[in-house]
TrEMBL record, chains A, B:
It comes from the Bacteria. InterPro entries: FrlB_SIS, Fructosamine_deglycase_FrlB, SIS_dom, SIS_dom_sf. One of its GO terms (biological process) is protein N-linked glycosylation. The lineage of its organism: Bacteria, Bacillati, Bacillota, Bacilli, Bacillales. Coiled coil: none annotated. Gene3D superfamilies: 1.10.10.2240, 3.40.50.12570, Glucose-6-phosphate isomerase like protein, domain 1. This is Fructosamine deglycase.
Length: 324, 324
């Protein structure tokens, strides 16, 4: 990892150590909120530290009472310009919280607004450890180690050196099926996603940012545990589902939903994270690496749709084109 | 309120008083989870008590570390038979948490499993104060009063005596437009819902339980604050939206989304909770009564669709018909 990144993350850890932190807020919008949510997932699973996720403007307007000088607020915006997230940083600082901005641009308004900054490289040929997932996971593992004292998270930091290689290998493993998924589903107007545990946040990103935003395909991210309490009635032989079977404690929920959905729909695509290549990752760390690897793999399924629909992922009708 | 209900709620309040409660978990499935979520919304907005919502099986499998003897776990199942929620009660008790089951059937497995029971009447001609919303709001107001010491929640309990009348009046006000909505949208295969704050849980219920489950209409509950970070790209002149403009601090988020969506879609139905009839409710209590009244009003829009599609809300293809 680049020295500047090591130092930025270390400064955050030292700042957290120096304050009596009582709760953590993960605050961002859209895909960035979903990406931060893995932090909330692991904090709630592994520690008794209260942790919350908010979309930035809800955070500002609801004004959660638990936010204060003993709060750690982690914010993220790819460009660092998302106005609601910049506003959330301003609001969190006004409440004396410890604020950390994660962005690819340290000169951005968000990074100017937050007390601490964690930068990541983006599509500049840097190793995965210095890019979005590697940087965030390093921060998370170090935070989890600080809160719990458990050594496994430090092993996690070490094993992140495998991240780039593992992303490549797992992408290679899914390239052809993802392309076939795109071909098979290119005429579909609606594709549901389904997942649980940490992976519900991948389903949310895929639904909101890839299907609805970039591909103009209708969608809804269904929680595998909620499926049987309403949404499953929409299932029919010709209703497409993209199902993530996770690597983690809630896999049985996914398996149960998968058993049902494959019985009544003839168009179910499964991304089985349990079957990913985890070479070099310890058994007890797989559930952390699973969500880290699932994002780049899922992206291929959107690429497949883009290729076969002739609708590039870069096309927008509203975003960046007008004030809103 | 019936004496038995007064006593059940009082027992819960005494039990909470008698324990050093450090966090609250709201645990249920589907529409029951959404209904409980209003509690989480008000607890996070008005108090610094950590509060969390889980769908029952995710709760059991994630096994949040913060759950313990200082936890209050509020569970709900209409019939009290939802297996995942019964399992969640068992799990919470195994962790020595204080468990409260809310159900229409006190003999149900859920009520047998939980330490405390809060019953509500269902479609038996009882006054609204003894039914689902009245009972839950009474419990919530008393809990909020206990945690914060603020008197306004006790005024809230008093003013719940108006609930039945207000539900009727607001339903009467929306009956015709809800029917017209059903007629206008009877051929639609997808209808999006949108809301923020407490009302996102209404959008979730409407999407999951009314549109997808009962009407087999594709849907997704979009958070008004998230709309601009992905989902808004799906908007087009012929894409139907059912938009809830809430009464509460996040109304500006709804208003912003409404301004955009009405510009680019010609089929936006608005349920404006700010314009509801709140006769007899104090100004500072409107944001609590808004979500209580929005449910019965929104139900009319599903009735309108059922009437004009000839697809009764009671029809299912899988639920109650097979093992799953």
């Amino acid at each position: 990892m680049k020295q500047v990144h090591v130092e930025q993350i270390q400064k955050v850890i030292e700042a957290v150590k120096g304050k009596d932190i009582e709760n953590i807020f993960f605050v961002a919008c859209g895909g960035s909120m979903a990406a931060l949510s893995f932090g909330d997932y692991f904090v709630t699973k592994d520690t008794d530290m209260p942790s919350f996720v908010y979309t930035s403007n809800e955070f500002i307007h609801r004004a959660p009472k638990a936010l204060g000088e003993k709060s750690l607020v982690i914010l993220k915006s790819h460009t660092g310009t998302t106005p609601e997230t910049v506003g959330a940083a301003t609001y969190a600082r006004s409440k004396s919280a410890l604020t950390v901005a994660i962005s690819m641009d340290v000169e951005s308004p968000l990074c100017q607004e937050a007390e601490f900054t964690v930068h990541y490289n983006y599509k500049d040929g840097s190793d995965a450890i210095d890019c979005e997932i590697g940087i965030y996971y390093t921060l998370l593992f170090k935070l989890l180690n600080l809160i719990t004292g458990e050594e496994k998270y430090l092993r996690g930091v070490d094993q992140l050196s495998k991240l780039g290689e593992l992303i490549e290998r797992n992408q290679a493993k899914h390239k052809d099926v993802a392309d076939a998924f795109g071909k098979k589903n290119k005429r579909e107007k609606i594709i549901y996603t389904m997942a649980s545990g940490a992976y519900i946040h991948h389903a949310y990103s895929f639904t909101s940012c890839l299907l609805m935003e970039m591909l103009w395909v209708n969608s809804n991210a269904i929680h595998s545990g909620e499926y049987f309490h309403g949404p499953f009635e929409i299932t029919d032989y010709d209703v497409p589902f993209l199902m993530v079977v996770g690597e983690g404690p809630s896999t049985p929920l996914d398996q149960r939903a998968l058993d049902f959905v494959t019985k009544y729909s003839e168009n179910v695509e499964v991304v089985n994270v349990k079957e990913f290549d985890y070479t070099g990752v310890d058994e007890d760390l797989k559930e952390y690496f699973g969500p880290a690897l699932a994002g780049p793999v899922l992206r291929l399924y959107a690429d497949g749709l883009a290729e076969h629909t002739g609708h590039p992922l870069s096309v927008r009708r509203y975003m960046w084109k007008m004030e809103y």
